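Review this:
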Amino acid sequence: MYKILIVEDEESMRRGLRDNLVFEGYEVDMAAEGEAGLKKILENQYHLVLLDVMMPRMSGFDVCQKARKNGIQTPIILLTAKGEEIDKVLGLELGADDYITKPFSLRELLARVKAALRRQNEFVATTGELIQFGDLEVDLSKFIARRAGYEVQLTHREFEIIRHLWEHKNEVVSREELLNAVWGYDAFPTTRTIDNFMLKLRQKAEADPQHPRHILTVHGIGYKFIP
């Protein structure tokens, strides 16, 4: 049974989400504010986290960022009342896997939950190899990356991007293809989201991010990965 954590300060929303997810067959845990939610994320194992952005004391952005810095790879879906593109892009850059803007329908929420869990299962099922390019070694089965014996902190999404690029090495991959393959659908603000992710990924994966040798930009189209 999948175990989902809901971190939401509004009680009616929190209980409503819990009741509907339990009805769908999920096991549900809850936290009413960010600090408690982060503590649960760090001390327990969940298959998915639904994380409200606007909370007192510690925002969902902060919870997401701190969880990723602590090596938590659990998929995170942000629940936000903000519709501005900058907020959505910021959440994704901090390590969130998806976002859904309030108010949302139950059907949409359940579809996002199922898609996130499905992508996680597919990723685990199809990754078992150790890959290396440059001086970076990436174990896709354990979500671990190392350079010269030291661990390099990659987000779950960055591991998925590396996997997709590796599977299509020496091929040109469009931004739209990456959006569909890695996020599962193309309902994101703009393909600029991909460029932001690739910029950060280069800073971690390339020996000289200003002059990349492996993750190359194909102007006007997308990217090309050369091992």
User: Anything to note?
Assistant: The chain has two domains: 3-124, 128-225.
